[in-house]
Amino acid sequence: MIFLTADQHYGHNNILRYVPERPFSTVADMNEELVQRHNHAVKPGDTVIHLGDFAFGSKMQVAAYLARLNGTHIIIRGNHDRGFRALEQLGFALAVPELRLVVNCVRVLLTHRMPTAKPDNADVVLHGHVHIDNDPASWRLNLCVENTGYRPMPLSAVLKMWRRKRNRLSPLPTNKEKKHD
């Protein structure tokens, strides 16, 4: 199964100050809870795509966080992550600037930063970076951990969540509205 997550910020001492919505009293508590929730959702044979800003700390600390997590890990490099080769040396199977998938005819762009304009070659953009979701755009979905229960979400559930958002923000016209077109 494929899971998606973004902006865990393992070991980031200031994240609780920058994002006060995080319900943790210390960074150590946050780190432990994120690991527990990750491993409860993700099994060893699963694949996890991280949409950037995985962890802060030395290379050894970052590798130690990753080693505790179930699954095979791919990372879309975030603004706080090291270079691509360094990330792969730390244990990520792949580190890339963005990733494109087609899932049941839906063109999906996976990126760290939220684009301001809808790409022509994507139906939905799944991203992180902004932490709190108050985005009115029906074609974007913010997967920062603050918006996903502090755990990775299966890709199938993410796409269902996007469809609900899209349908809520762009409802189909009623029969009455169609007649007046």
Which CATH C-level class is it? Alpha Beta
Low-confidence stretches: 176-181
Q: Main sheet, how many strands, which sense, barrel?
A: 5 strands, mixed
Return the domain count.
1
Average pLDDT value? 89
CATH topology: Purple Acid Phosphatase, chain A, domain 2
What is the 3D form?
Answer: globular
Give the amount of beta strand, in percent.
15-25%
Number of strands: 9
Order of helices and strands: EHHEHEHEEEEEEHH
Q: Work out the oligomeric state of the chains in this entry.
A: single chain
Strand line-up of the largest beta sheet: 4-3-2-1-9
Written overview of the protein:
There is one protein chain. With 181 residues, the chain is α/β, with parallel strands linked by helices. The protein has a single domain (2-179), classed as Metallo-dependent phosphatases (Purple Acid Phosphatase, chain A, domain 2, 4-Layer Sandwich). It is 30% helix and 19% strand. It contains 6 helices and 9 strands. The chain has helices at 15-18, 27-41, 59-67, 84-89, 155-169, 175-179, and strands spanning 2-5, 47-50, 72-76, 94-96, 99-103, 106-110, 124-127, 140-142, 153-154. It has a 5-stranded mixed β-sheet with strand order 4-3-2-1-9. A 4-stranded mixed β-sheet has the order 5-6-7-8, covered by helices on one side. The N and C termini lie far apart (43 Å).
